[in-house]
Amino acid sequence: MLFHKYASPKVFYALAGQLTPWFAVATLILLGYGLYQGLFVAPPDYQQGESVRIMFIHVPAAWMSMFVYMVMASAGAIGLIWNMRLADMAATASAPIGASFTLLALVTGSLWGKPMWGTWWAWDARLTSELLLFFLYLGFMALQAAIDDPRRAARAGALLALVGVVNIPVIHFSVQWWNTLHQPASVSAINKIGTPAIHPSLLIPLLIMAVAFTLFFVTVLLMRLRAEILHRERHTGWVAELVKP
Amino acid sequence: MNWSEFFNMGGYGLYVWGSYGMAALVLVFNVLAARRREKNVRRELEETTRLNQAD
């Protein structure tokens, strides 16, 4: 079966090496186009002025923080249920990338909150649950680093990641469930005449940046997976053959 | 549009450029960290191979 073939770490190592440059080039093109659209083409917002440009970084980063977490937890679950090594490695490789996107969402949120709300931080539901997400990533990494046996580390990490999944809908719906300082969703919002509430001139750069960040995640995930495969398969013949001086 | 106006961002320059700068840092850090990890793993592997051959 094709799936099983590519799930073999040895085959995937070579495949990832071939795919990485393509994803890297696609990331650079989309990122360049998204930055051009976001900084030069998009007009200033009628309420928020030029500060609205922070949205093109902040919103995709926040989406990625949750998306990568779901990738990490799903990979962990697959590793847990089917004992698939490559899935365990994907969970491990995703964590630092997800943590960095979460940090980016928190910092840019702070930089946007100061001029718009007059404060860098508030203990509001959206901000607090996003901060919790950051600690979940750090906890996952610390837990895995503390366990020497890779199979036990994978299992413990997957369990922690799965328990933490409850935080994802909390983040998403926090702006509806509670009265928050954070504004509600604009991308999925529909206005009174039934059209999207966000203007296309702001929506287009936002979506391009989101695709660029996703491609970036795949690129770095492939790079990290290659290192992880070498590390976890270091006792096998094919790795010894590969690094033979 | 002139450049000083562009960098000023209607008075929000610090916040806008701070956000884009932080994004640049995060992206660069991710690539460097992934590369460093690969380098460390390879160095570790080469050392074990050398030790095994010395036995």
Short description:
The complex is a heterodimer of chains A (245) and B (55). With 245 residues, chain A is mainly alpha-helical.
Labels describing this entry:
heterodimer, A: 245 residues, mainly alpha, 9 helices, 0% strand, B: 55 residues, 2 helices, 87% helix
Structural account:
The complex is a heterodimer of chains A (245) and B (55). Helix content of chain A is 77%, strand content 0%. By secondary structure, chain A is mainly α. In chain A, helix 3 (55-82) runs antiparallel to helix 4 and helix 3 (55-82) crosses helix 6. Chain A is globular and about 65 Å long. The relative contact order of chain A is 0.17. The mean pLDDT of chain A is 92. Chain B has one domain (14-54). The A-B interface holds A 35, 39, 44, 49-51, 53-54, 57-58, 61, 96-97, 100-101, 103-104, 107-108, 111-112, 114-115, 216, 220, 223-224, 226-227, 230-231, 234, 239-240, 243-245 and B 9-12, 15-16, 18-20, 22-23, 26-27, 29-31, 33-35, 37-38, 40-42, 44-46, 48-50.
Summarize the topology.
The complex is a heterodimer of chains A (245) and B (55).
Chain A: H1 2-7, H2 9-41, H3 55-82, H4 85-117, H5 125-146, H6 150-164, H7 167-177, H8 200-232, H9 237-243
Helix pairs in contact in A: 2-8, 3-4, 3-5, 3-6, 3-8, 4-5, 4-6, 4-8, 5-6, 5-7
Chain B: H1 3-8, H2 13-54
User: What string gives the helices and strands of chain A in order?
Assistant: HHHHHHHHH
The coarse silhouette of chain B is rod-shaped
Extended strand count of chain A:
0
The string of secondary-structure elements of chain B, in order, is HH
Beta-strand residue fraction of chain B:
under 5%
Number of helices of chain B: 2
The fraction of residues in strands of chain A falls at under 5%
Q: Structurally, how many domains make up the residues of chain B?
A: 1
End-to-end C-alpha gap of chain B: 70 Å
Please tell me the overall pLDDT of chain B: 91
State the helical fraction of chain B.
Answer: over 70%
What kind of assembly state do the chains in view correspond to?
heterodimer
Count of individual domains of chain A: 1
Q: Which two chains have the most extensive interface, and how many residues on each? A: A-B, 37 and 30 residues
